[in-house]
Amino acid sequence: MNTYIQKKIANMKLTLSEMSGGYKRMVTSMKKLGFSGTLKHIWDDLFAHRSLGQWVYLLILGSFPLWLELIYEHRIVDWTGMICSLTGIICVIFVSEGRASNYLFGLINSVIYLILALQKGFYGEVLTTLYFTIMQPIGLLVWIYQGQFKKEKQEFVARKLDAKGWTKYLSLSVLWWLVFGLIYQSVGANRPYRDSITDATNGVGQILMTAVYREQWIFWAATNIFSIYLWWGESLQIQGKYLIYLINSLVGWYQWNKAAKKHSPINGTLIGCDSVSLSFRTKNMVN
Question: What is the DSSP letter of 1?
């Protein structure tokens, strides 16, 4: 056991060292490029190397929060919710495109969402979003680490839950939902059991994602559906954001099923593309 723990600690130290090295290389590279060269690289990451279809997809989904305000309110009323929704949608799209700037939008989204959840008394959302806010800079370092030291693409074969697996993870979801719902209720949270069910589906989704089960997408979809229910009557913009996330989850489910039927490997970038960078969201990337 001690040898196993020592190996894990050694691997963690090595990974952190390599990530730190990757970060230092990035800083050194930025110094060599200068201010204008750095701006060009940022510009390229934001706008370059995108096909016409990708631009159309980005503009259609990106404009959704604006149209939501104009159609239902005939003017922009909820600026905070609209920016939160917009940055979340852009983050998800940028993750799927493999752009490092997704972390910028993910951080903005997480901070705004954290404030909104705290104002509404959704303490489960607050705790989860705190985690994802902290994970944004860490996620960027992992991204740099992958670029510097892991040149090869990671590929996985999607697995499928059997009846025993379904029973196990559904039971875990119910237990998670009830226990955390009771905890949130005891501290005076708003809509405690609506809040805790998204914790449960999100948490189990993360477990299934790590184990490369395609059923993770069902739990991501459930997270987004329950999140719409949680925010019902509170923020139309946040509901709209989760609607887009739901569509993304269904697309992910379709892609993984298609790959599984062909016994094809899944590219690592697909994993967690519902999550806010991550991590993910996710609840947000992805959520």
Answer: -
| 206 Cα distance to chain centroid | 10
Residue written as tokens 């039927």?
261
**Phi, psi angles (nearest 5°) of residue 227:** -70, -40
Interval 201-244: pLDDT, tens? 988 988 887 777 888 889 989 999 999 999 999 999 999 999 99
End-to-end CA distance of the chain: 35
The region of weakest confidence among 29-33, 86-90, 242-246 is 29-33
What's the whole-model pTM score? 0.75
Q: Which residues contact 132 (CB under 8 A, 6 or more apart)?
A: 106, 110, 276, 277, 278, 279, 280, 281, 282, 283, 284, 285
Q: Is beta strand 155-157 parallel, antiparallel or unpaired with respect to 265-267?
A: antiparallel
